[in-house]
Design brief:
The protein is of the alpha/beta class. 32% of the residues lie in helices and 17% in strands. One of its GO terms (biological process) is sterol biosynthetic process.
Length: 752
């Protein structure tokens, strides 16, 4: 009572209020006005009080895909294992087709964002799709590592307490490349694991081959799969409809300019705020150096580029990859804008917003708000060969019945498509221009609204059909121990003539790689070169083999400052690494630009050698293992990459660097008249190499062309190791090669 007497009136109020709140908390389940919303009136239109989709932002576990499926009434869940975005693109295509064919909605999931303990709880009237790319040497993509572990680890228990999935129905489509040894291995492993656990596959396992035509493999597989899907799932085709994925809205002209994305790749880039630089927020790296590596006067280009990363926070290791974010060339941007009736200046720069009608099915693939021109220049891949399925979707929007008929023929006749579009390497804009023109167009002439017939294609369909423009990856050709403030890349410029001409009176058109010709533009601008690029005016007698122009200054000239050009880049980690012990011998095989990572490897050893000699004297490298480099190119005087550097590195390594070269247009030919390549050099050195591999536990690295070189080198290694083991290439040699791969002593960084 003495204490109560000392309290003021305000104190009494506070104490009383506190006691009341506590009483209400403890009695909350008995008080009707505080009971859960399940007993109250339903919220109209399935909306939660905060305006979002019901259950989408509630207290449920965000990693529980089953809860999301039930909450949003999805009967299909699609998981994708994707490294570059292609598998995700196919996952979305499957989801859209399930909706248009059967009216079934799908939940498209990045497996990295979900847990799989409740995979055994998928309802029996639902199905799981797995769209899985194989990465590297038969490895899962980064976002599918945990999924694969859960599926293959027999000690992993699902919610029922067992490693079994007897009630699961599933579909598998794999993405791979037949030139690689482990073709579509991840999709096959997923299929085998699910089958072993008692799950039931719907349709055949699909396998796409990127070496030939992923698109055609997908189209051939999907119809049979959907037919069996309809039967197993007891659904009828025709229940769906062609509903839009997005709503596109043009904004008022007074919309604040500073809020419009004009090519910026992240919100931080738009607002110019600091943050971590990665694939979601690339760093605009200044170009320190960009020079031609091939001899002048030739018809090929190879560019050495050095990016300044001082103060960026970017770090890298030898063997990593540098992702370069290119833009599309001016001529293709202009062409598609004109084809869609957006070529006039006021239409090109119109500001638009895009809203997804079902974010679980299709997310807006690029930053918004933005402009039509920006989307075509920076955000979507308009430079790829047009796909048949996309053409089919566009035919009904043709400007004339004749154009519709021609486009439908190209979309439905596989042989005609291959002859005209695939062999002609025609992009979407070129195809639409071709089928709607009265006479065969010259694609090298600058497109204008006056020379191109416009199509009335809803822009939401363009956003749905054309995938996001992806970064191009290049092996880093430097070591951070010698170049801590810069990243070097070595890039051969891709330029070739199409197999067939679309024009009866002209040669096949030239095809230019998007990323490499973007870099060539930058190299020329860096040196102020005045060499003619593809004519802006479309002059008839222009050399058609010259590369197209790019808007290399970037959005709001952000990539050009004080006469220095910048390039948006990020670093992708790799397992392509040297052994930590320098006493371990190293064998590197890298013809052409396959030598790029090995320049970084050698620089790494040079830096380590300098430290060792400074600390322990001139004999510090005595016990080091040899470093063999097998390099091949056409000519010692035309395309021998970094020829002036190798003698210096060899001197710094006290003779431990041993280089063997094959110049296919110089080296004396073999007795049968065939050219000498790197695999032939390996056989010539089989004695010391076999000893290094079998006795000294040497590491072997192969970088370059996967289609022929890598296979030929592996065949030579099997032959060599088979002899070394006293057996044959097919038995002992193959077994030894398999063991080297399993123990990560044979590593490949190859491409097709």
């Amino acid at each position: 009572s003495a204490t109560m007497a000392s309290l003021s009136t305000s104190d009494l109020v506070l104490v009383t209020l506190g006691l009341a709140i506590a009483a209400i908390w403890f009695l909350r389940d008995q008080l009707p006005f505080l009971k859960s919303s399940s007993s109250s009136k339903p919220i109209p239109n399935g909306k939660s009080p905060n305006g979002g989709a019901k259950g989408a932002t509630g207290g449920a576990n965000p990693r529980d895909f089953i809860a999301k499926m039930l909450d949003t009434k999805k009967r299909i869940v699609i998981f994708y294992g994707s490294q570059t975005g292609t598998a995700e693109e196919y996952a979305i295509r499957l989801a859209k087709e399930a909706k248009s064919r059967f009216g079934l909605s799908s939940l498209v999931c990045d497996p990295e964002e979900y847990d799989f303990e409740n995979l055994d709880k998928i309802p029996e009237d639902c199905v799981a799709f797995f769209v899985m790319a194989t990465y590297g040497e038969g490895e899962p993509t980064d976002n599918a590592v945990t999924l694969m572990e859960n599926l293959e680890d027999e000690s992993f228990e699902f919610s029922g307490g067992e490693h079994k999935l007897p009630n699961l129905r599933y579909v598998v489509f794999g993405l791979g490349n037949r030139t690689y040894e482990h073709y579509n291995l991840i999709a096959r492993r997923v299929d085998a694991s699910l089958e072993k656990m008692g799950a039931t596959r719907i349709g055949k396992r699909g396998e796409g081959d990127d070496d030939k035509s992923m698109e055609e493999d997908y189209l051939e597989w999907k119809d049979g799969m959907w037919e069996e899907f309809a039967s197993v799932m007891n659904v009828e085709e025709g229940a769906g409809s062609d509903t839009a994925d997005f709503v596109v809205t043009e904004l008022e002209k007074e919309f604040p300019t500073e809020k419009i994305y004009l090519g910026e790749l992240s919100a931080r880039a738009l607002t110019r705020t600091k943050g971590i630089h990665d694939a979601k927020n690339p760093y605009p790296a200044p170009i320190k150096e960009a020079r031609e590596l091939f001899a002048t006067g030739g018809d090929r280009n190879c560019i050495h580029v050095e990016f300044d990363i001082e103060g960026s926070g970017l770090t890298y290791q030898h063997g990593d990859h540098c992702g370069v974010w290119p833009t599309n060339p001016d001529i293709e941007v202009d062409r598609l804008l004109c084809v869609l009736g957006l070529g006039a200046p006021e239409r090109r720069t119109a500001v638009i917003n895009i809203e997804s009608l079902d974010p679980t099915l299709a997310k807006v693939p690029f930053p918004i708000p933005t402009t039509y021109e920006t989307i075509f220049r920076h955000y979507i891949d308009i430079s790829a060969t047009a796909g048949r399925q996309a053409l089919s979707a566009l035919a009904k929007h043709a400007p004339t019945p004749e154009a519709a008929e021609r486009l439908t023929q190209l979309a439905t006749d596989k042989a005609l498509y291959a002859s005209v579009i695939a062999d002609g390497s025609l992009k979407l804009g070129e195809v639409l221009q071709l089928v709607s023109s009265a006479k065969v167009p010259d694609f090298h002439v600058k497109p204008t609204p006056e020379t191109i017939t416009p199509w009335k294609i809803p822009f939401d369909l363009i956003v749905s059909l054309i995938p996001r423009l992806q970064p191009r990856y290049y092996s880093i050709s430097s070591s951070p121990k010698l170049h801590p403030g810069s990243i070097h890349i070595t890039v051969v410029v891709l330029k070739y003539q199409a197999e067939k001409s679309h024009h009866p009176e002209k040669d096949p058109k030239w095809v230019f790689g998007v990323g490499t010709n973007y870099i060539l533009n930058l190299k020329m601008a860096h040196h102020g070169e005045t060499s003619v690029l593809m004519s802006e005016e479309g002059i008839e007698d222009v050399d058609l083999s010259v590369p197209p122009r790019y808007a290399i200054e970037g959005p709001r000239s952000a990539y050009y400052h004080e006469k220095v050009y910048k390039v948006p880049i990020h670093v992708r980690r790799s397992t392509f690494r040297l052994p930590t012990n320098p006493k371990t011998p190293v064998i590197m095989i890298g013809p052409g630009t396959g030598v790029a990572p090995f320049r970084g490897f050698v620089q790494e050893r040079v830096a380590l050698a300098k430290r060792a000699i400074d600390k322990n004297g001139p004999d510090a490298l005595k016990d080091w293992g040899n470093i063999w480099l097998f390099y091949g190119c056409r000519s010692s005087t035309q395309d021998f990459l970094y020829a002036e550097e190798w003698p210096y590195y060899a001197d710094q390594l006290n003779g431990k660097l041993i280089i063997h070269t094959a110049f296919s247009r110089e080296t004396p030919r073999k007795p049968d008249g065939s050219k000498v390549y790197v695999q032939d050099l390996i056989w010539q050195q089989r004695g010391p190499l076999t000893k290094a591999i079998l006795e000294q536990k040497a590491y072997i690295y192969i970088c370059g062309d996967a289609k022929s070189m890598a296979h030929d080198v592996e065949d030579q290694l099997m032959q060599m190791l088979g002899v070394g083991k006293g057996g044959t290439a097919e038995v002992e040699g193959a077994a030894e090669l398999k063991l080297l791969k399993e123990r990560s002593r044979l590593l490949l960084d190859v491409w097709s």
